[in-house]
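Final report, closing paragraph on structural work. Over the funding period we assembled a curated collection of sequence-structure pairs, and we close with a single example.
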Amino acid sequence: MNELDFENEFLVQAAKSLSGNSFGLLRVGGTLQDHIHYNMSATSQHCEPFPISPEGGRRSGFGDGCFSKGRQDSFFQFVENVGFKVIFGLNAMVGRKQNGPTSWTGKWNSSETENMIDDWIKQNRMRNFFALELGNEIYGESGIEAKLSVEEAVESFSELWRIVNEKFSSKNRPKIFGVDTALDNNWVRQFLNKSENGLDAFTYHSYPLGAGSSENVDKEIMDEKFNPKIYNLAEKASAFDNLPLGVWMGETGGAYNSGRNTITNRFMSAFWYIDWMGVMAESGHKAFCRQTFIGGNYGLLQVDSFLGVVVNPDFYGAVLFKELMIGKIYKASNNGESSIHQYYSEAILTNGQYQKTLLILNYSADKKQISFEGFKESATKYILSSPNLQSDKVFINQKQATFPPYPNPFKISDYAQPVGSGKLTVAGHTYAFITETLKTEK
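Its predicted structure, as stored:
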């Protein structure tokens, strides 16, 4: 956040492409969230880099840093320009004293947060907000930076609710999400039972592929039988789907500690990312937050020291999924082909038209013939392929995916082809979308 050039043309172009015809959601937070202090008197654009903490310090390896008013102004200009709404993660550790690696005492001091929100209101920034979060991976036994108790969490969130309720009407307030920690149903259930206001949505984090340093990340991604583990995770989380905005996958990059270079930033990555989005949507999750928009080896975008901001293969899959897999999503039959994973979506659009889409992932190295009964020959296909699984190139219907000249956003319609008659041939290690929009309702 403090180093990113928000005026970078490619960054702006990519963000607008993700927002599409509606707004995109950008989560601000993560590992260093609880290290950030909000300096609302500093008009400079940049704070000093995060200092390296001494051995035995906090788990990130860094000390505290700041997010200045000047830098915030640049950030809000960016999100306004590209059409993002912000989910902002607040520092929940201000005021607490560290007594051990994960042991803390004291209460959350909300004064910095309250001063910052006052400034946002004064500057009319709240129109850019969707939700607030409080703390990142600090709650319960699943916490990493800390392991705050249910009672400590209830007290902190109650204070956040006080601030929000005092400053906003119920209609205009930002939503409150939590608890942004690995799934622990028992802890969350206790928290919700003891919390007067609860949450607008339950968000949790998961990295089922394990550490990015593992030599097995690629094998896990391409394991067609890995899916039941994700379904089991999603089913457990769905215990909290009675909240106003349900359950969200609040953060995942597949493999933690920045993913794995040449794996989670290559074409192969779609076989966890696109598939898991299908699983989560089919299981009732309302949203899926990819770690990250930019940065690390698991970003949709990446910073290259020579090329600047570059797009990773999952970016194209993200745009297609967002535009085509809307409405209700179901798991579709694979007719006994374990290497084929399929999902089906249907929705009534705002103009009254009916849209349906079939998503197909072929985990096999062999081509497969896919039946698309119920779709007309004029339906549109998008087949995504690559020279090999570890390539950074993506082809859509055999045309290399690239960005048009600035400032035009990337549009999937530039790659559309009619599906034609008969069965669809899906080459090995590729995935595809078949979509159709009808002029009359279903």
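The radius of gyration is 22 Å. The first helix runs from residue 9 to 19. We thank the funder for supporting this effort.
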